[in-house]
Design brief:
By secondary structure, the chain is α/β, with parallel strands linked by helices. The protein has 19 helices and 16 strands. 34% of the residues lie in helices and 15% in strands. α10 runs parallel beside α19. The radius of gyration is 23 Å and the shape is globular. Bound molecules: flavin-adenine dinucleotide and iron/sulfur cluster. Flavin-adenine dinucleotide (FAD) binds next to α10, α15, α17, α18 and α19.
């Protein structure tokens, strides 16, 4: 083991995350995980053995120098730790909360071979929250006079250049932040009235407080990024217009994959049936849980079924529960195949969400007034593996049964909106309307147009979108300097 500057913590278990009691949190939208204290953070950081090959870093799409920042936490040097994290990751308070670390950095951590991996995500969140509480901003963290060793030294290679960023999710925010560091004039165009993409309209307040997203956005504004909201590109301006008439030298497309998929079964148009996007947008973006203080209402039933097994299904179920519905998740495979983060499944179970696994809806039942009264389902069993490598669920003949409900939420995936593809000649897209872009530079088939995040790879994760935003900024820098 390499020499450590601190007394190692040999515990096989992660330092527990202080959290709100399940019975209480199921009734409100307050953040569930409360975050480490300084003592917890030092304790957890000292579980890191500072592996010379640092496999954890390989698992991080934005290359956070994990052992170095964790060592600083272990020694109580939180400002230095923050500077190291912030230099690589523009949104650490967000990633520390929502990244699926178990399949990324923590999935590769050496300590995970014999016990829990180091709680890298929890430590990332701790340093970001600590810096926010101290009022330390990214520019201070990265300045020569500032608290840390981070480099803000990005040369102003793009001074005098103008780039338009379409969409304002994590891919776009990261790309905008990286470009503005290089001296570029950046304008972000967002279709909704609020910036942040899924971070603002999708992930609920109880997992990701919206004031954190607002703070990250305002840090970008302070750094010089201009935001234009209510600006649907493809309708208000096309990409060609942005480049030819509004003087942008390049465009980054980060429009996500926000178009919901449906089940395609009878009764789906009934009253009381909605897609998760609608429920979550009303509740998160429009603050419907505070109606009538905020003017958007939301329909909340007494008995709700949420169909799906991903993060979106889990967020929708926990939201419906908080609105007062007795909530059940219906998922066609088993718990093992559920794509949602393990921690979110665990939180949902603790709060009282029920699970009907190996179950698939076949029909939605309605009354004469067109309201949902039940959902007919069929039991499933797992057959041979399909193209994704997961065992294919097959219906068990004659096993149909009905769950009585007055609310159904569909959370079975989402697609990209075809608007950009339809209004941008020369932009290659796949049959599923995903924008075709180079993996390394994010360049598309249209000169000067770059793309990344969910709009390229389909619904994925915040950190993958951020990684793409970072690579795209480098791609744009190379393209614009070669053009000069
Ligand atoms: P998005 O975040 O989708 O942002 C795209 C933005 O572009 C949106 O604001 C949209 O309004 C805007 N836009 C679209 N078209 C136009 C246009 N024509 N003109 C202007 N603007 C436009 N990932 C995790 O890592 N961890 C999680 O816990 C997690 N939970 C999730 C929960 C929910 C409910 C959802 C929906 C997703 C979750 N994800 C999670 C996935 C993650 O949020 C996405 O992968 C990520 O946000 C993709 O980022 P993006 O920048 O590509 O696009
Ligand atoms: Fe520390 Fe785990 Fe990374 Fe090793 S793999 S350096 S133990 S965080």
């Amino acid at each position: 083991m390499p020499r450590l500057n601190y007394e190692p913590n040999r515990s096989k278990e992660k330092t527990p995350m202080p959290s709100l009691e399940p019975a209480y949190r199921a009734t409100c939208f307050e953040e569930v995980a409360l975050g480490y204290t300084e003592e917890d953070a030092i304790n957890e950081a000292r579980r890191c053995i500072q592996c010379p090959n640092s496999p954890c870093v390989e698992g991080c799409p934005v290359g956070v120098p994990i052992p170095s920042f964790v060592a600083q936490v272990a020694e109580g040097n939180f400002a230095e730790a923050f500077a190291l994290v912030k230099d690589a990751n523009a949104l650490p308070a967000i990633c520390g909360r929502v990244c699926p670390q178990e399949t990324q950095c923590e999935g590769k951590c050496t300590r995970g071979r014999n016990g829990d991996p180091v709680g890298i995500g929890r430590l990332e969140r701790f340093v970001a929250d600590w810096a926010m509480e101290q009022g330390i901003t990214s520019s201070e963290a990265n300045s020569e006079e500032g608290v840390g060793a981070g480099s803000d030294a990005a040369a102003k290679t793009l001074a005098g250049k103008k780039v338009a960023v379409v969409g304002s999710g994590p891919a776009s925010l990261t790309c905008a932040g990286e470009l503005v560091k290089r001296g570029c004039e950046v304008t972000v165009y967002e279709a909704l009235h609020k910036v942040g993409g899924v971070l603002s309209y999708g992930i609920p307040e109880f997992r990701l407080p919206k004031d954190l997203v607002a703070r990250e956005v305002s840090a970008l504004s302070d750094a010089g990024v201009t935001f234009e909201v209510n600006a649907l590109v493809g309708k208000l301006y096309t990409i060609d217009e942005l480049m030819e008439e509004r003087g942008f030298d390049a465009v980054f497309v980060g429009t996500g994959a926000g178009l919901p998929s449906y089940l395609g079964i009878e009764g789906e148009a009934a009253n009381g049936v909605m897609v998760a996007n609608e429920l979550l947008t009303r509740v998160n973006l429009m603050k419907a849980y505070l109606f009538p203080e905020y003017d958007t209402p939301v329909y909340a039933g007494k008995k709700c079924v949420v169909v799906g097994g991903g993060n979106v299904a889990m967020d929708a179920a926990r939201t419906a529960l908080r609105l007062g519905a007795d909530t059940t998740i219906v998922y066609r495979r088993s718990m093992e195949e559920m794509p949602a983060r393990a921690e979110e499944i665990h939180h949902a179970e603790e709060e009282g969400v029920n699970f009907q696994l190996l179950t698939n809806p076949t029909r939605i039942l309605t009354n004469d007034a067109g309201w949902v009264t039940g959902i007919e389902c069929v039991r499933m069993e797992l057959g041979e593996p399909d193209a994704s490598g997961r065992r294919r669920p097959v219906p068990v003949e004659g096993s149909e049964f009905v769950i009585d409900v007055d609310m159904v939420v569909i959370a079975v995936g989402s697609k990209t909106n075809p608007l950009i593809a339809q209004t941008t000649p020369g932009l290659d897209v796949t049959s599923r309307n995903l924008v075709v872009a180079d993996e390394e530079t994010c360049a598309t088939s249209k000169p000067g147009v770059f793309a990344g995040g969910d709009t390229v790879i389909g619904a994925a994760t915040v950190i993958l979108a951020m990684g793409a935003g970072k690579r795209a900024a480098a791609g744009i820098e190379k393209y614009l300097t070669e053009q000069a």
